[in-house]
Design brief:
This protein is mainly α. It is built from ten helices and three strands; from the N terminus they run βααβαααβααααα. It has a three-stranded mixed β-sheet with strand order 2-1-3.
Length: 311
Amino acid sequence: MDSENQTSVTDFAFLGLTDLVELQCILFGVFLIFYLVNIIGNLSIMVIIILHPSLHTPMYFFLWNLSFIDICFSSVAVPKMLVDLLALKKTISFAGCISQIHFFHFLGSTEAGLLTAMSYDRYVAIGNPLRYTLIMNTKVCRSLTLGSWVTGFFHSLLHTVLTAKLTFCGPNLVNHFFCDIKPVLKLACTDTTLNVKLLTMVTGSLATMSFLLTLLSYLFISKFLLRIRTAEGRKRAFSTCSAHLTVVFLLYGTAIFTYLRPSTQNSLDQDRAAAVLFTVVTPALNPIIYTLRNKEIKRAMKSIIKRMFVL
């Protein structure tokens, strides 16, 4: 090697989820349905929020961004995985692999930041309803959202640059269905101690901090809920949080499980199963969770459908 960042590996091959052809065909059908539900469901939420003036509020501004991120996040890995389930050779170029790592962690950490912002929004809405629109003004909402995107970008850039500078001289078999940092680091010919430490410290800390801030918001929310005298009032207040809480536990549960554990062969196999949850299942469940648990979204949807039929 002439320099540290040169590599003899020009592409990587994925081991995928299974070698059984029959199972690959079944998984292709199941994951395609989930992906279509994700795209159609999240796009529908985005369109409904844009078209219905009553949804032009901070809560739905954040939800619009969450739906957009879910579509992009899932699209980083799922379309390639679907192609590979029907392909004999499951390969990706070196540049394509590094791009997957970057956008996967960029969008994933942005979503973590956005969910934290959404928990703060719910805290203000329930704890200080009379000053809600004053506190959660347009500037604050945009700043919180932009902060999530910027933090996600630089967090991902750190890992992307450090991974790209490693030397890869074979083998090139990635024990995953897409390029994630941990299985790719396993293939490096040079010392990856710094990469592994930063993955645990930076990614782990970011996920844990976001999760704890979200829980802190809900701790304060629960105190306000206890002050509401009627059961109906508590139920109505909690219903605005339940969908968000469900999404939070789905995302953080799998993320912390994946990135705070040491990398062993068994853990990499478990990481693949966890990755299916947060790349395939969770983004498809988010629009369903928010639609089923949100009366305003359902009302807006009925109103738009009614108008379409009238026209």
